Amino acid sequence: MNVKILLAVALLASLAGHAAENSIAIVGATVIHPERELPAAVERDRTVLITGNRIVRIGPRAGTRVPAGATRIDGKGKWVVPGLVDAHVHFFQSGNLYTRPDVADFNAVVPYVEEVARNKARLPATFKLWLASGVTSVVDIGGPYWNFEMRDAARKSSAAPRVAVAGPLISMIDRPKLDLGDPPIVKVTTADEARTLVQRELAYKPDFIKVWFIHRPGDDLAAQEAIVKATADAAHAAGVRLAVHATELEVAKAALRAGADYLVHSVEDAPVDQEFLALAKKNRALYCPTLFVVMGYRYALSNTWRPTPAERRLADPQILAAMGDLARIPPEKLPERVAKAMADTASPEPSAVELQNLRTVWDAGIPVAMGTDAGNIGTLHGPSVFRELGLMVQAGLTPLQVLRAATVNGARTMGLERELGTLAPGKLADLLILDADPLADVQNLARIHRVIKDGQLFAPEELMRSLSGT
Ligand SMILES: [Zn+2]
């Protein structure tokens, strides 16, 4: 053999060895394809092969050879689903009582400046919480300019979800209590101001421009719509999508007429009508119901917030410990709003209109993405997804439909629908290995054996252990 051939053989051997070392084989699992209908959505006794950060093969166990050197995971009695996407989170907020002084001002207990500093310093831990809950991608749909640094940090981190991001919310109103020099919400009063702000944000390459569309009695809706349209046009000219917070039917319609690509909350004041559905379809808009977040505020501010079993295992221990603080705060330090909430003995219930609208929107064929609005008071980073998934089932969606919202449609929200959200050769290797069938009970999505993100293998309990003492 001449030297050239020897070298070629050595190179091939090293490549093969390299591939096997970076390979994972899940052998004999039930694979769920959320983009399909039953029964095709479920494939039993399959082997999933991952090399590097891609899925390379999914085939019958009997006919799929596991390369020597691959990390082998026994898939017997396990289910494999795509990694979840939370399409609505905020990393500048923690979920505790001190995180929204514009809603409930606890500055006398914990200064907001300390709270935000904590949230920034805590990012590496917060990233791990998401992975531990099976969420391999999140959309941070608005915050201070340091949101863009957060996205960079997630990209460089060895244990973080993929992150899509919006910068400061463009709004009709401001929130001075949230302004520490880099406010998450910026008020504009003219179309020109909106265009200028969009240009400033575009310099950071945002995944979305976000409008916080607040319409109060007496406001001129047409004039507001014109400002939102100027914002949308400026974003679209740069190829960036527009996300809008618009929670009333007339405001949501105005947002869609102005060009919204993504409605980040339910319509909460009235049943959606044909005009709304037609506008949403015309824009190919995504709809994120965020059913739990308002309940989270109500539980937390009335001191009736209690962790779910998933939250006991998978929430940030620092935040869990702080959720009971209300009982320890002297009454004279309680904000008026909280005193009122504590006197209210009615238990928080999901909004019937929001549940009904979710069904109507789903049945009309508008893509629904699962999102929690995590970071708001009472909605914790990571395991709050299991509360949201449960409410979507309560709205009448099947577990398969809910899974589709949390994977296929989530990937669309990320702008990664070609790469993520389904299980197929060539796709990025973001997936969950579960100990129980998520189509039998959507809460089984919390029973995670392993998480694979970008081809990297994680065990939830190890991720959580790595947080203790930090
Ligand atoms: Zn939000």
Describe this structure in words.
It is a single chain. The chain is α/β, with parallel strands linked by helices. 37% of the residues lie in helices and 18% in strands. Among the domains are: 124 residues, Urease, subunit C, domain 1 (Roll); 116 residues, TIM Barrel, CATH 3.20.20.140. The chain is built from 17 helices and 17 strands. The strands form 3 sheets. Strands 1, 2, 3, 4, 5, 15, 16 and 17 form an 8-stranded mixed β-sheet that branches. The protein has a 6-stranded parallel β-sheet with strand order 10-9-11-12-13-14, with helices on both faces. α8 links the parallel β13 and β14. α5 runs parallel beside α6. The protein is globular, with a radius of gyration of 23 Å. The relative contact order is 0.16. The structure holds zinc ion. The site of zinc ion has 4 residues, from loops.
Give the DSSP E fraction (strand runs of 2 or more residues): 15-25%
Please write the CATH class name of the domain at 3-82 and 422-465: Mainly Beta
Q: Indicate the overall shape.
A: globular
Query: How many helices does DSSP assign?
Result: 17
Ligands in the model, by name, code or SMILES, are: zinc ion
Task: Provide the structure class.
Answer: alpha/beta
Largest sheet: 8 strands, mixed
Q: Tell me the distance between the termini.
A: 58 Å
Number of extended strands:
17
The helicity comes to 25-40%
- What is the H level of CATH, i.e. the homologous superfamily of the domain at 3-82 and 422-465? Urease, subunit C, domain 1
CATH fold topology of the domain at 3-82 and 422-465: Urease, subunit C, domain 1
CATH architecture of the domain at 3-82 and 422-465: Roll
| Mean pLDDT, all residues | 94
Poorly predicted regions: 9-17
> What is the alpha-carbon Rg in Å?
23 Å
